Structure formats: C-alpha cells, structure tokens
Automatic annotation (TrEMBL):
Domain of life: Eukaryota
Pfam families: Neur_chan_memb
Organism for this UniProt entry: Myiagra hebetior
Transmembrane residue ranges: 34-54, 66-85, 97-116, 235-255
Name of this protein: ACH10 protein
InterPro entries: Neur_chan_lig-bd_sf, Neur_channel, Neuro-gated_channel_TM_sf, Neuro_actylchol_rec, Neurotrans-gated_channel_TM
GO biological process terms held by the UniProt record: chemical synaptic transmission
A Gene Ontology cellular-component term: synaptic membrane
Keyword field: Cell membrane, Disulfide bond, Glycoprotein, Ion channel, Ion transport, Ligand-gated ion channel, Membrane, Receptor, Signal, Synapse, Transmembrane, Transmembrane helix, Transport
Domain Neurotransmitter-gated ion-channel transmembrane: 39-250
Stretch list, region Disordered: 153-183
SUPFAM superfamilies linked: Neurotransmitter-gated ion-channel transmembrane pore
C-alpha cells in the first residue's frame, strides 16, 4: 500500500558526531479475494442451510442427516483453512468464524434431535403442561406465525391402526345383539317388545362411543405435542437465521 520514509538523527554519548538514518516502513495488506471467494462465501452459504433443518417436516426423517451433512462440509473447509494458514498461537479471523459456525450447527443438530423426540410423543405421553400450552401454543405460535399446525404432519401409519381398532371394537359389540336375539328367540321373548335388548344395545353403543372418545383424546394429545414441536422448530429456525446473518456481517466487517 505504501512505503513512507522517516529520517532520524541520533547522537550517542560516546561520540559527538550525529548519526542520521532513514527508516522505511512497508505497508502490506493481504489480497483477501481468494479467501473470500474460495473459503468464506462457501462457508456462509453452507451455514445458511443449517437453520433450514428446522423447516423440514419431522416425519421426513432428514432433519438430523441434514445437520450432520452440513457439519461434515464445514469440517472439510476447516481442514482447507488449517492447511493454508501458518501454524501460530493466534487464531485468524476466518478460523474463528469456522469454529463459531461449527459450534452453532452442532447446537442446531442437538436441538433438532430434541424436537424430533417431542414430535414423536405417542398417545401414552402425558398431556402438554399448562405453562407450555400458554407459552408455546399461544404466544410463540403467534410470534412465529404458526396457525394451522398438525393437520399436514400427522403420521399416516397411525390412522390405519386406529381405524382397525375402531372396526374391531365396533364389530365385537355388534355381535352381542345377534346373540341376544337368538337367545331371546330361544326363550320365546319377542325382540321388539323386550326392554332388556334395548339396554344391551345402549351398553354396546356406549362402549363404542367410549372407544371413539378415548381414540380422539389420544389423537388430540398427540396433535398438541406435534404442534409444540412445530412451533419450536419455527422459532429456532428464525433464531439461527439471525445468528448466521449477524456472524457473517461481523466477520465481513472486521475483514474489511
């Protein structure tokens, strides 16, 4: 960038003559375009893929693999940086950026695993706590603009099982009136004028209604946990997008 010169005149105690000297200062700056286009920009683009792992549906099975793939890609770039930089005690700015990005992606992968565990809470799980329902399902859902949650993310494997259970429950009690009819005909009791058969029919209908109510309660509990998982996914997606953007702007500003 430049080479300014400074003339110095020094008088030593041993001699009366002054000793002049000229000091030249070389101002150097690294050409950063190679590192920006080959190491920094690919890292920024790859790091922006990490928050998109929260946007993937939990039933797709690709949430964890996306985070691990991004982490491996950043590890490869980190190895390239380590090979091109001289070994020293001080860590360069691009090395700090890679370490911070890898730490953030590791945290996002761990949070993804936790959210998938919440999403796959089955019917045997306990209900959503009141504080989580108030904080996550009401306030955070409005903040992240999540309104219709759970309808498109239901597991297709649970509906056939529930349908078979309903058919089996409905089919089991449906045979009892026929058996009662045969028994009543054997005893000589008319089917249309006997109140005991109406009581049996009411008990069978109540049993079927109870089965459907329990099935709907289990579906409602599962849907609430899925809603909690989706709201947390959307919230962490925006948080990590903001973190990646701020880190990139900070690094580019310090490099400039």
């Amino acid at each position: 960038l430049g080479m300014p010169a400074t003339r110095n005149v020094i008088t030593y105690g041993c001699c009366s003559e002054p000793y002049p000297d000229v000091t030249y200062t070389l101002l150097l700056r690294r050409r950063a375009s190679f590192y920006i286009f080959n190491l920094l920009l690919p890292c920024i683009m790859v790091s922006f893929l990490a928050p998109l792992g929260f946007y993937l549906p939990a039933d797709s099975g690709e949430k964890g693999s996306l985070g691990v793939t991004v982490l491996l890609a950043l590890t490869v770039f980190q190895l390239l940086v380590a090979e091109s930089m001289p070994p020293s005690e001080s860590v360069p700015l691009i090395g700090k950026y890679y370490i911070a990005t890898m730490t953030m992606i590791t945290a996002s992968t761990a949070l993804t695993i936790f959210i998938m565990n919440v999403h796959h809470c089955g019917p045997g799980a306990r209900p959503v706590p009141p504080w989580a329902r108030r904080l996550i399902l009401h306030h955070m859902a409005r903040l992240c603009c999540v309104y219709e949650v759970g309808e498109s993310c239901k597991s297709p494997q649970r509906a056939p099982g529930g349908h078979r259970a309903g058919v089996g429950d409905a089919g089991g009690p449906a045979e009892s009136p026929g058996e009662g009819q045969v028994g009543s005909e054997a005893r000589g009791c008319p089917w249309d004028h006997c109140l005991c058969h109406h009581d049996a029919l009411l008990r069978n209908v109540g049993y079927i209604a109870g089965c459907f109510r329990r099935h709907r309660a289990n579906q409602r509990r599962t849907g609430e946990w899925k809603k909690v998982a989706k709201v947390m996914d959307r919230f962490f997606m925006w948080v990590f997008f903001l973190m990646v953007f701020l880190m990139s702007v900070l690094v580019l500003g310090n490099a400039a």
